[in-house]
Design a protein that fits this description.
With 298 residues, the protein is an alpha/beta fold. The chain contains eleven helices and eight strands. An eight-stranded mixed beta sheet has the order 1-2-4-3-5-6-7-8, with helices on both faces. It is globular and about 50 Å long.
């Protein structure tokens, strides 16, 4: 059995569930199998006044193909762009190794900051990128936005809810949302309520799903085989809503043998299935002529 298969088997043994223990166990499955070769990195750059409004920047060695903003998960109340020196440092270094400028922000969290703080922070990060990363503001360099779990929820609100975004969407080459939360329907966990609020009459209006509209932005959705059903169903619902609005399906990936977090935790490991999906989407929507020829090994 290959190492990649061994890693997948260990994840599968944890089953279709998700909690803090499974998060920790999944981190330990991948922790010692990641390529953590440093990129050129700049940490804790401010994009706002709050202490959570900081981002890390990862730069490729050669001229960049595009810029990818990665918005991590954390159940609306937790998560960090680099909480332990490994995750999600692995995501930034993986993207930089393959020719992309990676931008990994923290964002304001519940219970101190409820809806719509996360989506507005995504907006402000993108505004910072357009002002500070050469080539993005002038359209010479493509911009992608990638969110996972609660991060995907914030990205979904930024993409679809124009009133909450309160700014032009601007040029976006593609949006990726992995195992996200898009529809605040009871019963909700305590951490989800902390973000969306106790008033259930407001939940629909605050849900990304409510605001889905036709869009020309390429969108890629993914769900993990071992996402708990209540989590996985959210992505299928969003895919259905987008299909109805656009008259065609968004791009979609079903990740065999992955759980809610093993997808992003595996980036840079010998298990390359999720990495291949990410790179395929980026290359297919990046204008740089050599995008498809860069970094075919993870």
């Amino acid at each position: 059995m290959s190492l990649a298969s061994e890693l997948q088997a260990k994840v599968r043994s944890l089953g279709p569930a998700f909690n803090l223990d499974i998060l920790t166990a999944t981190q330990e499955i991948y922790r010692h199998h990641l390529d953590m070769t440093p990129a050129e990195e700049k940490a804790n750059l401010a994009y706002g006044s709050d202490e959570r409004q900081r981002l890390d920047l990862y730069l490729p060695k050669a001229a960049p193909l595009a810029v990818v903003v990665y918005v991590h998960g954390g159940g609306f109340v937790g998560g960090d762009k680099n909480g332990d020196g490994t995750f999600y440092l692995n995501v930034g270094r993986f993207l930089a190794r393959h020719g992309y400028v990676a931008v990994l922000p923290n964002y304001r969290r519940a219970p101190v900051h409820g809806w719509p703080a996360g989506a507005q922070d995504v907006r402000d990060v993108i505004g910072w990128v357009r002002k500070n990363v050469q080539g993005v503001g002038t359209g010479e360099l493509d911009l992608f936005v990638f969110g996972q779990s609660a991060g995907a929820s914030h990205v979904g609100s930024w993409l679809f809810d124009s009133k909450t975004r309160d700014a032009p969407l601007g040029a976006v080459a593609g949006v990726m949302m992995a195992s996200g939360f898009f529809n605040a329907v009871a019963p909700l966990s305590s951490n989800t309520l902390a973000y969306f609020g106790d008033d259930v009459t407001l939940h629909a209006q605050r849900s990304p799903m409510t605001h889905v509209v036709k869009t020309d932005v390429p969108v890629w959705l993914s769900v993990a085989e071992l996402d708990p059903g209540s989590m996985g169903s959210q992505t299928f619902q969003l895919a259905d809503a987008m299909s109805r609005c656009n008259g065609r399906s968004p791009e979609f990936a079903w990740l065999r043998g992955h759980n809610h977090v093993s997808t992003v935790l595996s980036l840079g490991s010998p298990q390359q299935d999720f990495a291949d999906e990410i790179l395929r989407f980026l290359r297919s929507h990046t204008r740089a002529s050599d995008a498809r020829d860069v970094g075919k090994k993870t």
